[in-house]
Amino acid sequence: MNAKKIDKFATGILYTIAGIVVLILIMLLGFIILRGVPQLSWSFLTSPSNAFSAGGGIGIQLFNSLYLLILTMLISLPIALGASIYLNEYAKPGMITNTVRTMIEILSSLPSVVVGLFGFLLFVVQFKLSFSIVSGALALTVFNLPLLTRSIEEALKAISNDQRNGGLALGISKWETVTKIILPAAVPSIVSGLILSAGRVFGEAAALIYTAGQSAPALNFGNWNPFDIDSPLNPMRPAETLAVHIWKINSEGIMPDAAAVSAGSAAVLIIVVLLFNLSARWLGRTLYRHLTAS
């Protein structure tokens, strides 16, 4: 067999494998969406859930998921960004830097249920934050921080050293070089990392079962005082998220339309993640054009 035939054969195998992966993804997404979309309605998306009777919705769970996502990213993004800048731009190669990177790798490989139990013991029990949005956000920060730190660090590494040397040659400080040249150039890759980590956070369930809780108390969406117990913005209330709601329905749901609610909830989860991905990619391109004047 000559080299050309071997090349065609190997290329065909690679295309076949890629096609199988894409086909599996399309079948999975198609099954979830086609099964769940017929259950969707405005009432389903906005009304509270029912534990025993049919006709409940996911309004509170959907809000809780978005609220937890925002709080988690607000906590984890500054920490991850600062750690990435230090590791890539300031840290000198050595035992301490290697140890930090090893610890990040170890943290990124922890199962989410282990992170949830850690959050339960530390935030819920030791810090006495109880089952709350704050406990869930802190646990998700521990869960999300290693992946986000590595993705931002890789985005910074991808920027050519010529840009760093050019900034220093102009007489500006290293900090100004990082903030005015390196970070704007890395924005698209950083946003891609945010997309991946945000999707991971939005669909997380195991870590939140032990920290944010499995209940969704009634909320007054006309009261936006974060210190009131029935306010949606109260960070100290328990908050069942959409992913936890899906798990709970499939494990112990007793409402007559449990299968329909589960299918609709799964479809919403997938659609929201897809919309978030598309919106974030558009935002990344827009920010890149604005910050680099291109």
TrEMBL record:
GO terms for cellular component: plasma membrane. It is found in: Cell membrane. Keywords: Cell membrane, Membrane, Transmembrane, Transmembrane helix, Transport. Pfam families: BPD_transp_1. It is a multi-pass membrane protein. The chain crosses the membrane at residues 12-34, 66-87, 99-123, 129-148, 258-278. GO terms for biological process: phosphate ion transmembrane transport. Its main location: membrane. It comes from the Bacteria. Residues 62-280 form the ABC transmembrane type-1 domain. CDD domains: TM_PBP2. One of its GO terms (molecular function) is phosphate transmembrane transporter activity. InterPro entries: MetI-like (IPR000515), MetI-like_sf (IPR035906), Phosphate_PstA (IPR005672). Belongs to the binding-protein-dependent transport system permease family. CysTW subfamily. NCBIfam families: 3a0107s02c. This is Phosphate transport system permease protein PstA. It comes from Paucilactobacillus wasatchensis. The lineage of its organism: Bacteria, Bacillati, Bacillota, Bacilli, Lactobacillales. The gene is pstA.
